[in-house]
Each structure stands twice: as C-alpha cells, then as structure tokens.
Amino acid sequence: MIFATSAAAIGLFFAGSAYASASTIVTVKSGDTVWGISQQYNSSVKAIESANNLKDANVITVGQQLTIPSANSASTTQGSAHAAQATTTQQTQSYSSAASTQTSQAATTSSTATSGSVAEQAAQLMEQKTGVSASTWLAISYRESRNNPTAQNPSSTAHGLYQSLYTTSNDWREQVNDAARIYQSQGMGAWALN
After folding, report:
1. Of 136, 157, 159, residue with least CA distance to 148
2. How far is CA 192 from the centre of its chain?
3. pLDDT in tens, 138-173
C-alpha cells in the first residue's frame, strides 16, 4: 500500500514537472538564430535568453543545445507585462483626464468670476491688449455682431464679435486674440475707425 501510494505520488510529481516545464530542447544548426528559433517554436528571444542564461542572443554556436520555453510560459510572461503596461497607460490617461477637467473647471470659474457679458469681458480684454478703451471695443462688437460671438456675416466669411475674416471659432477668447493681431497690423482702420 505504501509502495503504491509512493509510486503514484512520484508519478504525479513527474507528470506535474513535465507539464510545468513544457519546454523543448533544440540543437543549434548552421544558420540558426535565436530570433528564428523563437519564431519557429512560438517563444520569445527574451524567454530563450533567460532560460539559457545567454549574455548575448546574437552569440550561439552550432551544436549548442538551447532550452526553448513553451509558448504558454512565454505568453504568460508577455501577457503580464502587457497587462501591467496597459494598466499604467490607463492610469496615466485617467490622471491626464482628471487634470484636464480640473484645468477646464478652473478656467470656467475664472471666466464666470469676471463681471459682465461675454462682449463686455472681450472688450475689457481688448483694452488690455490694445490700449483702446473697452467702451470703443464694446461699440464695435455691437455694431459688427450685436455682441454675438457666433455671428456670421451672410455675404462674407466674417465671423464672431469683431467680424474677423481670419477666425471661425466661436470661442470669444480666440476672437479677441485674432482682433488684437488685426489691430496690431492694421489699427482701427480694420473696423473703419481712424
């Protein structure tokens, strides 16, 4: 009885070992490379290097015997690395997304904290950028667009608060930046005011 139990245990041990190792021994032939062998046996260069303690995968000799880990053990290792990389990428994207949301919320809070309508805020910013009074810019935006940042001239491509030909953005801040550039190059003549 003890002998039969021991034999069964030893048999299970060897069967488990054979299943766990599941690797192949390959004798290197002329023209073989570790990469070529890895492709032939569905393994990886890293797995073969590791299993054979190779310092340089480019240096193997004819007649050398290499242990080739099974595809399962190689893919399990690679799968774990890919899963860890995917998790890290996901976490990075989550952090980036959270930072972007916080920045966007801060910008919204900042713009709502500024008093006045969009046209008034734009006029104040134009005054800072050009030195021309906010009341003048407010009068121009009323005349050009009725203070509507999405206004579109039906007879031209003029767009926004100051009816610029260069921007199609509905973001009043971009319209202000564009109008300030126009003012720097053309002065008030761009709006028929000299």
Report:
1. 159
2. 46
3. 999 999 999 999 999 888 888 999 998 888 889 999
